[in-house]
Amino acid sequence: MNKSSRKSLNIFVRIKNAAILLGVCAVFAGSASAQAQVPAVAATSATVVTAAPAKPATAVAKDAGTNDKTAATGTDLKASLATLSTLYQNEIQRREKQNAKLKELSTQGLLSHVEMEKSDKELADARAKLEDVAKQTAELNKPAATPLLAMNEPGSNQAWSTGNARIDGLIHYYGNLHGVDPYLIYCLMSQESKFTSGATSPKGAQGLMQLMPGTAARYGITNPYNVAQNISGGTRYLKDLLKMFNGRVDLALAGYNAGEGAVIKHGYTIPPYSETRNYVRLIVARYGKKQTS
Question: What element of type H or E holds 205?
Fold first, then answer.
C-alpha cells in the first residue's frame, strides 16, 4: 500500500471512530434525559391523584396482629361450640335411652305420671341447648360477620335487650345496685337460660340465671322462678364471686358454672371441665372484656 493510500485509510478510520463516539454519547445523553424526566412525571401525577398516606411499619404490624387475634378468636369459639355440641349430643342420646325405658315402665303402671313428665322436660331442655349451640355456630359462620370480641364492649353505646322491657330494667337496676356491669349479667343470663324465666336444667338449676336450690336459699330466694328475686340473687352471687376472685371475670364465671369450690380446688384456675371452660370462653368472648391476670 502506497503512502497516499495509507493516509486515506487513516482518515477513514478516524472519521469512523468519531462517528461511533458521537453515537455513544448521544445514547447516554438520551438516557440521562429520560431519567431526569421521571421525577417530573411523578410529581405531575401526584398533583392530580392524592395517594393515601402509607401506614408506619408499626401500625401495619399492629393491624396484622389484630387480624391474627380475630382469626384465632373465631377459631377458638368454633372449637368451643363444637365441643359443647358433642357434649349435648351425648347427653341427648343418654336421656333418650333413659326416657324410652321410663316410658315402658309408665305404660306398665310402674312409674308415676310426674316422673315421666320430668324426664320428658329434661330431654326437651337438652335438645334446646343443642339447638342453641347450632344457632350460635351458624351465626359465627356467616360471611363477613363482626367478630364476637368486637361486639358490645363494656361502656359502649350499642344497645342490647332480652326482648322483655321488665327484665331489661331489672338487670340494669340490680346491676347498678350491686356494682356489677349490667351487660355482663345480660351475657351470663343469655348463656344460662336464653332469658326464659321458667327454665329448669337437668341438674336442677332454676330460673333466668339458673340458680341451684342451695344457692337460691343462701341468698334468701323463696321463689327462684320469680323474675325479680332470681335476678337479684343471681347478681349478688356474681358480685360475691367477682369479689372472691379479685375481679377476674373468667374465674367468677367458672365459679358460677362449676361452683366456687371447684375453682379454689384447682388452684384458682378454671376447672378442667370441658363444659365449664367452653362456657367461660363463650361468655367472655361475647362480653368483650379481656381477662385480668
Answer: none
